[in-house]
Every structure is written in C-alpha cells, then in structure tokens.
Design goal:
Blueprint (H helix, E strand, L loop, with lengths): L14 E4 L2 E4 L4 H16 L6 E2 H9 L12 H13 L3 E4 L8 E4 L1 H5 L3 H13 L2 E2 H8 L8 H13 L3 E4 L9 E4 L34 H22 L4
Antiparallel strand pairs: 1-2, 3-5, 4-5, 6-8, 7-8
C-alpha cells in the first residue's frame, strides 16, 4: 500500500541550495516542538484546535509523549509560533469571530504530506528517532496506520522528500531507526544503551515470569487517558 501523497514535494520556499544540492531549511528546537504540538493536537483533540497561546504553552510543556520534557514560557512559545507563521508552516486564526488569537499548522500543504505522514512526522518531532514499530504504536493515536508496511511507506516518503533520514540501530539493537531533519539537533541520534554498575547487576529471573500484557495496547490506553485529561485542562484553562 502506498501513500496517496507519495509523489508530493515540499514547497520550494522551504528549500535552500547548498553545494548545488537542494536541502530543507531547518527550524529551531522550540519551533520543532511547537510544530509537533500543532500537528498532534489537530489530530488528537480537534475539539480544542486551533490552539490559543496558553494551550500551546501547556501542550509544549506536557510530560507525556514528549522527549525531552521542556519548560517553555509564553514569550518563547509565541516567538516560535510567529516564526512558524513567517515560514508558512503555521497561521493565525480567529475561529468563530473570536477575539482570541489561535494558531493552526499548514504543514500538510507546505510539506506535501497526508495525515499519516503528518502523524509520523509529529512523533519524530516530539520524541526523536524511533523504529518503525515504535512509530506505528505511538503515531496511530493520530492517524490510521494499519500495518508496518504503511509506516514504512510513509517513512520512505519522508526520506525521499528530504524530511527524514535513516539511522543505524541503537547499540545492541537490530531495528533501523528514523529521524526528522527539519531540526537535526532536536534530539540525540545515538542514545547510549543502558549501563549497569557492579552493585547494579542485570536482574535475573528466579521464577517463571507471568504472561506479559499487550504492551502496545497498554501504552495506547494510557496515552488515550492522558489526551482526555489534557483536553479537559485546555477547556478549563488549567495550566501546569
């Protein structure tokens, strides 16, 4: 199965020439967090989207589905949002003739991506390099990703459009990883493997372990509950 946007290309305004090669114009770490936030909230909580400045601050600083967890203030968030607007990756809106300024992304048209690709890009912006399996488990809360093949096709599209790159497996791992390139320094590309000291030996099983629950289902359920809490907080104007 191939993405319906597989032949789309990013807007040329986002491309610059280096050594006779067209490359994507990069964005800052804060802009990357806010773009990821706008992409995510458009799909997970459409009832509270577009986002006000206060909602954008809360979403940028939330502890779930974020790596690393940040503590951005309103000035930093507003500056990042205005920069995304200047780059035509976001826009200001006043829904329902409201006087409260809100922000929405325009990445679908600007980058030539469909919903599945935007969901995967959001995960890469918000959490950093991940494997195909991790991306499917985490991004399907935003868009239908029926199989690993679908995710692989989406990642191929991102790589072909110079929006993503392939990475070798983590040390000790086997699965190829993928990263976004809109902000290459947003996350470390080579996370170290777990280390154990002499007095912290690798735990050994002393008895047969009970059957493990479906980890993917548990993660999905926890994230669904977190989304509902965040949506309620946004509606009530609660800041963390």
């Amino acid at each position: 199965m191939k993405s319906s946007a597989a032949n789309a290309r990013p807007d040329r305004a986002l491309l610059k020439k280096e050594d006779d090669t067209l490359v994507i114009e990069t964005i800052s770490k804060t802009e990357a967090r806010l773009l990821g936030v706008l992409l995510e909230k458009a799909m997970t909580t459409p009832e509270t989207y577009p986002l006000s400045l206060n909602a954008a601050v809360n979403a940028a600083n939330q502890k779930s589905n974020r790596e690393p967890v940040l503590s951005l203030d309103e000035d930093a968030v507003l500056e990042a949002l205005e920069s995304l607007v200047d780059r035509n990756l976001a826009k200001r809106v006043f829904p329902g003739h409201s006087r409260v300024e809100k922000f929405a992304h325009t990445a679908g048209a600007k980058l030539g991506l469909n919903a599945a690709a935007l969901a995967v890009l959001a995960e890469l912006l918000l959490r950093g390099p991940q494997t195909v399996g991790e991306l499917r488990t985490r991004a399907r809360r935003m868009a239908p990703l029926e199989s690993l093949e679908v995710v692989e096709n989406v990642l191929r599209q991102l790589v072909d459009n110079r929006l993503g790159r392939r990475l070798p497996p983590d040390p000790g791992g086997r699965a190829e990883r993928f990263a976004q390139v809109l902000c290459p320094d947003a996350h470390p590309l080579d996370a170290p493997p777990p280390r154990y000291t002499d007095d912290q030996a690798v735990p050994r099983a002393t008895a047969p372990a009970p059957a493990a629950p479906d980890l993917a289902a548990l993660i999905e359920r926890i994230e669904e509950l977190e989304r509902r809490i965040e949506s309620l907080e946004e509606q009530l104007g609660i800041t963390r």
